[in-house]
DNA sequence: CTGAAAGCGCTTACAG
DNA sequence: CTGAAAGCGCTTACAG
């Protein structure tokens, strides 16, 4: 591999000291315009590229942040990751994305790797369990999105307003005339999903004439879609038929719709269905899916800004926890 | 931020030199079992974490690879990224994922950042244009997936067998009795997609009784799905109706199916449709989509292994280009 | 089996 | 305005 030039060689070629080259590079400190031109010329001519590793070691700042995410294939996460990364990039930070695949050993290994790489901050998205930061050798600014950290000390916390999301979903079904509502979710979901259920239940409880039942799939072996199909089988067996379903994600919702259809139950005329996430699939399905849309741009912006703020303040160890709650939006389509 | 301990402090606490601590850490060089135990004990007790940045600067090896990808939201890319990253991780490498959003300025900026971070290698996935590596200050092992690099020197090249993919798609339609086939794609697609079209055309040309037409959407403002709907409008207007469609991705295929349905044309009885990628949506749609599945695990494995091989050989500058071509598979479902 | 020392490529007080 | 020098935390010949 061709060796790249160092600041030392640039200095020699420019006839100045390495200190001066460094100053020009960082536009920091005083130097004559003439010197600057001279150095910049040599840098250009030699395609010099600064060595960030050396910078990081020296300055103890990596301008890199680590991002822990359970699953990159999920559309919601992919969007969120993409936007956070884009925001951080415009602010001069690189992002190392670590996909844990919900494997806590992998999560720990990644945390150590990020620690060793001196990342300036950490963003953790969702995840099944409490976040165990005891493996870190340093205290590091941390922002969690939809996840409860078990960390003492300063943690930023950005949440989508899942509680309201559930509430709005129920409200919509009720306003459409539903009186027997099934709330369908997964028994193994993270707290963000449980909040959706909680919101939906709370709302229904405000309406004495509306009943609900909770159906939690524990079929970890199935995809969300397949779980929905599976749950639909339960639904059609019931003596008191449901007329509304709130599913805590869109794939689940679509599985339910298809499962119901297989049993001759039509959506939305016989049963109305509301999903969650406003996944890309919502628009292309027939019936298209009524759903709750999370504000991904705002979640990304809040998380990135909060982390950057924490990095720059770097007050280190007082236990202040900043929280942001980002609104959601009901999107009405054909299914309810 | 709490400062982490250095090897120097571990050395002091263990009563040995930093050299010895380093040896124990890397299990490299000779030392007594007693020394090892002593040092390891201190490391454990103090939750010592090695500083990879210092290691990298010293050894000029970062055990980090960079990955340039056009779009993380695309299911095919997301899967591929995920699997490459997982493979590299088991081999001790971290992966920095850089999403270019098809913006070449962003691509250049990322390339520079990766260069500055001393990544040991680079994987580039797809992308619209030739890859411009002139911004790199070093020669670096590079593997391209479905992308033509314009680089002199050693480049690994892993491709999905897009040509055969197109061929197989046509074959299937023909074997299902189609005689008027529309090949639908995007005018702005990368070469990997053009290969699919080429394969499909070649195959049809083998069959004198089968005709085809090529429809390329140039509506960059539309999603793939919307482009499909749009194209379907063209299709139904034609005097000689088509009875088969090959679309170069699944979302496009689904748009066509929905567009045809809107005009009263039924799939698969009147028109048969084959998509490409075997996206997660294929199974949940009705009709479910017949498609060409790329072998993502093998693509990931080949790319990762090839890159690792190049890194370890590091022969640097002979112009050998390794190529791998990964087979695809026809998956027959309801739409054709 | 172990240590002293050089050096990876930078930044930044300190001195002038 | 500029340079000499220390030091970030490691690894690795070299010497013993």
TrEMBL record, chains A, B:
HTH lacI-type domain: residues covered: 5-59
InterPro entries, A to Z: HTH_LacI (IPR000843), LacI/GalR-like_sensor (IPR046335), Lambda_DNA-bd_dom_sf (IPR010982), Peripla_BP_I (IPR028082)
CDD domains tied to this protein: HTH_LacI (cd01392), PBP1_Qymf-like (cd06291)
Annotated transmembrane regions: none
PROSITE patterns: HTH_LACI_1, HTH_LACI_2
Pfam families xref list: LacI, Peripla_BP_3
Keyword Glycoprotein in record: no
Listed GO MF terms: DNA-binding transcription factor activity; transcription cis-regulatory region binding
SUPFAM superfamilies attached to this UniProt entry: lambda repressor-like DNA-binding domains, Periplasmic binding protein-like I
The entry's keywords: DNA-binding, Repressor, Transcription, Transcription regulation
PANTHER family: LACI-RELATED TRANSCRIPTIONAL REPRESSOR, RIBOSE OPERON REPRESSOR
Protein name: LacI family DNA-binding transcriptional regulator
């Amino acid at each position: 591999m061709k060796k790249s030039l160092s600041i030392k060689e640039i200095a020699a070629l420019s006839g100045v000291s390495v200190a001066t080259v460094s100053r020009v590079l960082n536009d920091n400190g005083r130097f004559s315009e003439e010197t600057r031109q001279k150095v910049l010329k040599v840098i250009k001519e030699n395609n010099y590229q600064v060595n960030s590793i050396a910078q990081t070691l020296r300055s103890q700042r990596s301008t890199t942040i680590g991002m822990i995410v359970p699953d990159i294939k999920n559309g919601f996460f992919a969007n969120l990751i993409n936007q956070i990364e884009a925001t951080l990039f415009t602010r001069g930070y690189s992002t190392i994305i670590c996909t844990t695949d919900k494997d806590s050993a992998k999560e720990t290994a990644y945390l150590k790797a990020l620690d060793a790489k001196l990342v300036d901050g950490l963003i953790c998205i969702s995840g099944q369990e409490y976040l165990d930061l005891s493996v870190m050798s340093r205290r590091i600014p941390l922002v969690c999105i939809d996840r409860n950290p078990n960390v003492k000390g300063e943690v930023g916390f950005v949440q989508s307003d899942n509680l309201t999301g559930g509430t709005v979903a129920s409200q919509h079904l009720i306003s459409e005339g539903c009186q027997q509502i099934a709330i369908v979710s997964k028994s193994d979901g993270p707290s963000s999903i449980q909040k959706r259920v909680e919101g939906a239940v709370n709302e229904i409880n405000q309406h004495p004439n509306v009943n609900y039942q909770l159906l939690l799939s524990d079929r970890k072996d199935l995809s969300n879609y397949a779980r929905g199909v599976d749950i639909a089988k339960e639904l059609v067996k019931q003596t008191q038929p449901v007329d509304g379903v709130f599913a805590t994600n869109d794939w689940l919702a679509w599985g339910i719709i298809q499962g119901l259809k297989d049993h001759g139950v039509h959506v939305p005329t016989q049963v109305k269905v509301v999903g969650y996430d406003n996944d890309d699939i919502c628009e292309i399905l027939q019936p298209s899916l009524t759903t709750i849309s999370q504000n991904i741009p705002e979640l990304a912006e809040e998380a990135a800004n909060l982390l950057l703020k924490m990095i720059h303040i770097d007050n280190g160890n007082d236990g202040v926890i900043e929280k942001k709650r980002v609104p959601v939006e009901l999107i009405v389509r054909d299914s309810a």
